[in-house]
Amino acid sequence: MQADQIRETERRRLAALVSGDLEAANQLHADDFQLVTPHGATLSKPDYLGAIASGRLKYDIWAPGPIDVRLFGDAAVIRYRATLANTWAGQSFPPRDFWHTDLYEKRDGQWQAVWSQATEIRPPD
After folding, report:
1. Is 15 contained in some domain?
2. Which range marks the domain in which residue 57 is found?
3. E strands of the chain, at which residues?
4. How far apart are CA 104 and CA 71, in angstroms?
5. What is the value of pTM for the model shown?
6. Which of these, 72, 98, 102, 112, has the minimum number of CB atoms within 10 Å of its CB?
7. Which among 124, 105, 119 is positioned nearest to 32, based on CA atoms?
8. Is 72 inside any structural domain?
């Protein structure tokens, strides 16, 4: 089933990002990949994977919950809640919960992440 294949691809992508496996991460992100961070910044694939390669960004935990998938031919949108802990530019962030929405496209027979957006879940003020 394609939805299960996409879920497994997302889990492999997250594992590659947490472990710093840039070879795998490079294959799982489209060349025109773009991330919208929880702070509203945008990062291209070279910026994002470069931050991981340099150690500026390090994921300590990225634990996804159930992944919902909506298929549209050779495109799919996924959404899930996850717990993340990371370090950015030397500042450590404890585990927090986020919603993730990602667009995947099937290119040359392989599913790749094209767009990704993370939104931090905060308690109401």
Report:
1. yes
2. 2-120
3. 29-36, 42-44, 57-64, 68-72, 75-88, 91-107, 110-120
4. 9
5. 0.94
6. 72
7. 105
8. yes
